[in-house]
Structure formats: C-alpha cells, structure tokens
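May I ask you to review the protein record following this short note?
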Amino acid sequence: MEEEDTRLQQRRQAAATRAAAAPSIQLLSRPDSPHLAAIPPDDRFGRTGRLRIMQGYDASQPPPEPPAQALGAAMQYRTVDELCDAVRHHHRSYNQKRRQMIVRGARALLTRLNGYPGDTWEQRWLASGSDAAPMTWMDHPDLPQYDRYSPTLLGMNALLQLRVLRPSYSWMLDSRTKVNTAQFIEHNGGNALTKLRQLAEYQGSLLRHQRDAEAGLARVMIRTGKTIEQITGDDLLYYADVVKTSGRQRREHLLWELLVRLGPLATEAPTLRAAWSAKGNTRQHSTATLVDRYGIPPSGVRDLLADYFEEIRPGMDYGSLEGLAYRIVRLFWWEILQINPQQTDLRLSTDVITAWRERLALTTDGRERREVHSVLFAIRGFYRDLAEWSHDDPVRWGVWVAPCPVPRALSRAAAKNKRRQQSQMQSRTRMLTPLLPTFLTAVNEHKQRSALFLERARAAGHDLQFEVEGYVFVRDAPPERLAIDERARVWARLAPGQPRPNWIRGEAKRIDVTGVEDDGFWCWAVAETLRHTGIRVEELMELTQLSLRHYTAATTGTLVPLLHIVPSKTDCERLVPMTPELVQVLLAVLRRAKGGGDHVPLSVRYDVTEKVHGQPFPHLFSRRVGARQEVLSGHYLRGILSHLAVVAGLSDAGQPIRFTPHDFRRLFATDAVNSGLPLHIAAALLGHLNLDTTRGYTAVFPEHLIAAHQAFIERRRQLRPIGEDRVAEDDEWSEFENHFLLRRVALGECHRPYGTPCVHEHACTRCRFLRVDPAQLGRIDEMAENAEQRLVEAKDRAWLGEVAALEESIKHLRIRQSEAQQRLSHGSNPFAQQIQD
C-alpha cells in the first residue's frame, strides 16, 4: 500500500503484548554482582486472583532519544554519591529529617540499580526488570520497607524530577505507589506551565480534568525527557495510543487542546480525535488504498482501477468516491475473481456474467439486495468511461476497452425501481402525518419530565429517595473527600422493587440523570428545529452561533430573523426565515450551548461521509462530554428520536413506528406545498436544485387521482344549470352573511356546511363541526368539572339515564379539550400562515 499507518509497528507490539502472558524481556546481570536475579515481570493476576489491567506495550522498551542539551543526559553518567548530592541540593528547602529520608531512599535505589549491567542509569533500570514489574518493583530486601516504602518512593520521585530515570508509560500508569506528577510538573513546568494554567480552556474545566491534563503532561515529559515547549504531536499520540491499547480511560483530550492553544502543537489538528483520525483508518485514503482494502491481488486490472478512481476523484466528493469504489471493486471485480480467479481483463464470458448477477442479487447473509441498480449503473459508467477515454488516450485506456456486462435494457429497469421507492416514501409520509402531533406532544412531555427528574435528583441527598411520575429513585452521591472528586454528572438508581420506566434509555443499574435530561432537551430541540425548517441532519449539526442572522425589510422596517444554512449536500447556500416558535427553540439551544458562559465553546465536527474534521466553530448543537466539547452525532440524534417514538407508543397497523431526521424534511415539504407554498419556493427552502426532487417529496397523493378529480369537476360544471351562474341578489348575500354570523358560539365557531341545520340542537360539545377556541379552555374545564359533580350525584341517586348522558357529555368535553390543546401547541405550517396573511 502507498499509505502505511505511522503507528503500525506500535500496534503490532500491542497485539503481541495482548497475546503473551507477560512481556517478553531479556534480563541481564553482572556475574560478579550480588544482585544476580532480576525482578520477574508482574503476573497478570493479583494476590486476590483478580485479573490486573493490561500492561502497555512499551513496558521494558528503551525510552526515545532525549533532545540535545537535555538535563537527564548529563545525569546518566554520574556516580551514586554525585546523584545523592544532587538530590540533597534539589530538596534543600525541606527539613533535615525529610531530606535525609529522601536521600536514603535514592541511595538505596541507586545502589541496587548499580548492580545491573549498563553504561547509563536508564539501561540499568531496564536490566533490573523493574520496568516490567510496576506492582512489585519495591519488593527487595535492600530497599527501605518501613513506613509504607516511603523512603524508596520519595527517592524514586526525586530521581524522576532530576530526569535520571525515564520509566515506560506502562510503569507510570500501573505503579502501585503512584508517581508524584504534581511535584514533577511544578519543578519542570517553568513559564510554559504558568501560561497553560492561564488559558480559558484550562480555567473553564473541572479540577479533576485539570489534574488529569497535568498528570498526562508530566508523564510525557518524564518519558521523552523534553520540556513543554519541545513536546510534539507524535509524542502525545504515542502516549495516548499506549493508554488506549492497554484498556484505560483516555484523558488526553484537554491536554491536546491546551498544547494546541499554548503553541507546541499549533500546527497539529485542533483536537486529539482529529489528530487520531488523520493517522488512523477513519481518514480519507488514497485511491490505491480504496482498491487494496478489498483484497484485490496485484494485477493489471488492480492498477487500472486505481488509475480510474484517481482520474475521476477531482470531480467527486470523498463519500461518493468511496461508495463508487465499493460498488466497482467489492461488488463487481472482487466477485468476478471469486467466480474466475484467472480473469485478467474486463472482457467477461457469458457464464461469468450470469454467475455474477446471481451473486449480486443476494447479500452475504443470504437476503435479497435492495440496492442493485446503483451497482449496475456504476459498472456501466465504468465501461463507458473507458471507451470514451480511449479516444483521447488510446495507449493508456484503449487496451482495457471491452463489451459492457450490463445491457442497456437491464439498466432501464432502474426507472421502475425509482418509482417504487418514491411510492414507498410517499406512503410513509402519509402514514407519519397524523402521528406527528402525538410525537411532538410526547417530546414536550419528556423534556419537562427529564428536567423535573434532574431537579429533584439534585435536591435529594445521598441515599435519599425522590419520586418522578410515580417512580421512586434513590440519589447516588457519596460524599466527596477532596475537591478533585467533584462530579460533573448527577447519578441515581431505582428504589428496590421499582420497575424501570420506559423513558430512561439503557439498562444500567446506575442512572445518569444528567444524561436523561440531555436526551430530553436535545430530542425536543432537534424535533422542533427540523419540523420548522426541513433542513438536513448534517445541516442541523453544522449550525453555529454565526448562523443566526436577521434582515430588516426596506419597505416596512420589520426585523425578519433568518437561519443561515451553509453549503452541504448540493453546495447550495440558503437563508431560511425563522418563525417565532423556531426563534424560541434556537435561543434555548444557544443558552444551553453556552453553559453559563459568555460565548459558545468551540468544537470540531467530524464529517462521517467525507472522513474529515472541520475547523473549530461555536456549534449550537454541541454538548460537554468529559473535558471536551463535542458536536452531536447523527447516530445520537437518531437514537433519541427512535427512543421517543417508543415512549410515545406510535404504531401503524400494529407495527411500531420510528421517526428519523429525514422524515421531518419530507413532512415539512409536504405541509408547505399542500398549504399553498409555490413549488419553486419550497425547493429554495429545502436546498433542492431540481423541482422534480421537491415534487417527489410533496406528491403525497397519486397524480392520476388528482387529474381525474379535476376532470370530473370540470364536467360537472358544464352540466350545471345556467341559472346557477347568475349574480346573487342583495337579499341572498345578506342571508349568506347572516348565516355565518350565527356560527359564533361560546366555545368557538361552528364549521358546518352552508345551508345545513344544526343536527345536535345546539349541543355543541358533541358536534364534530365545532372548532374550539383555545382561549375557551377554561370554560371547557368548568363544564367538565360541573358535569363530573352532576355525575356523582346521578350515581348516588341511581338516575341511570342521567348517568349515561353525563358520561357521554364528559367524553366529548375531553375530546374538544384535547383538540384545543393540540391547536395551541402545534399550529399550522408557518409559511402557509404567511401566505394567508
């Protein structure tokens, strides 16, 4: 391959470490030394039989070359007495008793190491086996063991501060007596440490995250022998890789961002994830790698495929190129080689083509492949491009020209498949339209419920119970011993015997109350934003504080809020007018993103399609994850929307229904066009370059039915008597207007057709033509309360007929009340209202 992972050697070493029971090291000792036996490596199992955490793959590996003029380089060739004098001078500010204890421990450790072979103290440290025994390295008779090994530990930390020893990351992370990274960073940090602590990112983090960043920085400085200014991105990436491959929690994100802002990593990616992705598999690959990743053996066709993708790459985005490579390389040529391993050109026999089509029709697990025509189009385009390019460059492309294995008639079937897919999408839109109000109601209820859950959890003390909607929880917040133990999240657990409510995601016993509230808020914010704008999910994630604009009309002076949508799928930049409801939602999102600060923290979004990280921007839809600010991912958004659909109990014909982000886009387009918005305006709002695409979103009903109905109306108009087309007289107009003036009733308006009588004899609450005014909800509540009181009396007096009538009245009152509340919560499409005005 052209692109070799820069960390491939370390990964192989990590795999070998995982496969072995213990690190394979070579123990050296002097024949004339009293310390002939080196310390054996730590066992994978502790004294109690529990499996210990995996050692890092750098155990027993020599440290990297120190920089020129490094302090540790001068210390490597000093004698035991000289080093003890240096330790004594370094701790001259300590009292005599403690200074003597430190020197005693350093002398004992140096004396022991002096018995092992090596020209430097680092070589003797490796030869002693201590680097592979972080849990047992002090179990030696010559080392002071009283007072919990304090002299040896103090002496070891003194030698680390003087840069005499540079143990592996594995040893520093696993050592039973932890390295005092705080003392090391204070002594070796210098002015750079002061500047680092003055950064806004540092001061805005929790104390625990600050200590984690400083501890990681100290370990990198100890291992590399460098100062803060000399640290490079590879140094920190190597340390992060050791931490990751050994199964530990990674806490280097804040440290990376601090060093980027401070200056040593100014030329690197802005976040650790971006740097890791740039050197890993989640990055953009070369065209040769896109071919070789599917195991294509070296051949002329392999080189042709690489050249072909290189030729078309400038005109395609990476996501499309990667998908095309999958179709041509994996689904076509790899399958051809499985059928005929001796195939060396693109001229395929009839038997091979037939076998390939049979294999293409099914997936690897035996199911029918849904997307076949895109593969056929890709293969046909591949052969057609080679034939066309052969006219311009016959030497390069002419030798590969061959008959296309996909006939034209087979590719024409794609039109039928497209119509079938469009029909399925329209059917789904018709099915989701009546379910949308129920879903939005559930979203609002869950937002309020999750906020109440967090509020009551914070108010409860440790092991105290609190109740939310009939469920009893117990607060889980043990007392914090130190300020560094400050918790960023609120935790709880269900009380014994309590069933788990369906509005809490996951099955963990400890409930992340903060996460539940996060899910409730972001589900509400995403659903409301998508239904009011119809933007794509990737456009939603790209919204920043700079996306909120406004426009002042020159004629009226009215301030119109606008939402700026950056170019995405179709490279179409646009401005979407914001309704008052959307403005309120985005202001709540803005306050949430600021997190109590003066501005929205910068965050970097990873584009899963293009495989690139963007630049730091104040993204609105971002949240705090540990010590870093992360943009909400598409996977997370789909998860919370699907979960809320389950909570709402949505179903159609007995089958559960899920809402996806793209469903809101189709519902928005359908509602807008059906409400009278011109198709070309809807296309501009949606960012469509082709009106047919928008028409496919909005054609909820079959066109032939609409055309037949219009023809039927025209024929009926031709058959109507001529007298019906006369001009209405004044008396008739007066009667018509008075008829509608009488439609106003106490609870709202009657919408029965003109000229029809009131069939319910003015029992409006039972009439389906009554449109309740939301302002009259209080009156309905009073009527329902009065009816319930009369129902109690009727039951007491055994007035069975009155009981049946009152129960029917209460039922219709609840229906009218629900209709009014839905109108109050979910108005009509905002752009339809603008047209009506």
In short: The two ends are 64 Å apart (CA to CA). The longest strand covers residues 559-565. The CA atoms of residues 539 and 565 lie 7 Å apart.
